[in-house]
Design goal:
By secondary structure, this protein is an alpha+beta fold. Helices cover 70% and strands 9% of the residues. The protein is built from 11 helices and 4 strands. Strand 3 and strand 4 (294-301) form a beta hairpin. This is TolC family protein.
């Protein structure tokens, strides 16, 4: 409600209130100028998110597997040693044998390449999954920021209502003291002030709760500025084409997951048996001067594949592939439906803001006229307080509609896969 439209004694009495309201507006604008953007809030939330640390670890593991696949051998070499004699059990003729082996596993044909490609596919999927996780986190930050804006608007209007009720009570108390108003008006004014103070206490508790949620999510109680990216907010939004849909981080992540599942299945089919092994063996024997006491040989171990080994592994890889295909189809549908819903909310928010602003202006003007009529004795006090309450409620609804429009614009941007 505009303070500057009050006239006569009311304007003089409410001048401090007007100055207080203007000070609150200036303070709120200064705070908004220093407020972090939604991008800053999302970055802070990602820094604190446990999933970001887990994702970093998973990416490190996939990168390590890719590097290991470029090694000369799939596993570490190993050595074995054996010793035999006939002293304790046997002929007790002093016969001894020393035998040693040094061997290493070998890659199956194509196994190293398939292993590296599988690891790289997992790495690409994890990187794209990080973008999808950031998008989901941005949605959570937006929800908390919107709730915080609602709470801040509620508190600001509640504070103005308390100030107006207190000023009204002062006027009524003076009028009752001079005999210009009945005592019942003082009770009504006191009741209006008490109701406004209760509403302010509830609004402050609501704001504290919203700020607490923001602290848990972003580490800061500052409300993000939802108007900090005018290019995103002003852009005209339409339903995406097929190419734009595929570039969405959620769809792209599901597609990368499908590619990783395909690479894992190829690896299972290539590595259809345990790795072969090759090595050298040496034998030293004590056989009373025999010319073949020392011998060297070559060892080659070639395992065979089996149904018992391969069928479960192929079945698991195939199941992963089928799950990835289903998830890709689901993500495409969800993204398209989510954008349609976000666009519908945006259209509704635009219409609501316009209507709410009109209602707020009309009720503000009506409140001014009703209060003026009360001052000249044409209206009872209860009508003036009701008119003020209706004006403050309309002001709050207009503020909420404006915040909802900003949130709806961001919701559309997020539904399109645009990160703040």
């Amino acid at each position: 409600m505009s303070c500057l439209r009050w006239t006569g004694p009311a304007r003089v009495a409410l001048a401090p209130a007007c100055m207080w309201v203007l000070g609150m507006v200036a303070a709120s604008r200064a705070i908004a100028a220093r407020a972090p953007s939604l991008h800053d809030a999302v970055q802070a939330a990602w820094t604190l998110a446990p999933d970001s640390y887990a994702l970093d670890g998973q990416r490190g593991e996939a990168a390590a597997r890719a590097r290991a696949a470029r090694a000369f051998f799939p596993g570490a070499p190993y050595a074995t040693g054996e010793y035999f004699d006939d002293h304790l059990i046997g002929s007790n003729q002093g016969y001894t044998t020393y035998q040693g082996e040094l061997a290493t596993p070998l890659w199956l044909p194509g196994e190293g390449t398939a292993t590296e490609r599988s690891a790289q596919a997992d790495l690409l999927h994890l990187s794209q999954q990080g973008e999808a996780m950031r998008l989901e986190l941005a949605r959570q930050v937006l929800e908390q920021a919107t709730a915080g804006e609602f709470a801040a608007d509620n508190r600001a209007v509640a504070a103005r209502r308390v100030q107006a009720a207190r000023q009204l009570q002062d006027i009524v108390s003076h009028a009752v003291g001079t005999g210009e108003a009945p005592g019942i008006d003082a009770e009504a004014a006191q009741a209006a002030l008490g109701s406004a103070q209760i509403a302010l206490s509830d609004a402050e508790a609501q704001l504290a709760g919203a700020q607490g949620s923001l602290v848990a999510l972003t580490g800061s109680a500052e409300l993000p500025d939802l108007t900090a990216n005018p290019a995103v907010l002003a852009a005209d939004r339409t339903l995406p084409g097929a190419e734009q849909l595929e570039r969405d981080p959620r769809v792209a992540s599901a597609h990368r997951e499908l590619e990783a599942a395909e690479a894992a299945l190829r690896l299972v089919r290539v590595a259809d048996r345990d790795d072969p092994e090759v090595g050298i063996e040496g034998i030293h024997e004590k056989q009373f001067g025999s010319p073949w006491d020392n011998r060297v040989g070559v060892m080659l171990k070639v395992p065979f594949g089996s149904t018992a080994r391969n069928l479960p592994r192929i079945a698991a890889a195939t199941a992963r592939l089928n799950t990835a295909e289903a998830r890709l189809l689901q993500q495409r549908r969800l993204v398209a439906i989510g954008l349609q819903q976000a666009l519908a909310r945006l259209r509704a928010a635009r219409a609501n803001r316009s209507a709410a602003a009109t209602v707020a202006r009309e009720l503000d003007g009506r409140a001014v006229e009703v209060v003026r009529a009360w001052h000249v004795g044409e209206m009872p006090l209860i009508e003036a307080t009701r008119a003020q309450t209706a004006a403050f409620d309309a002001d709050l609804a207009a503020r909420r509609a404006s915040t909802m429009l900003q949130a709806a614009q961001w919701q559309v941007a997020l539904a399109e896969g645009v990160l703040p």
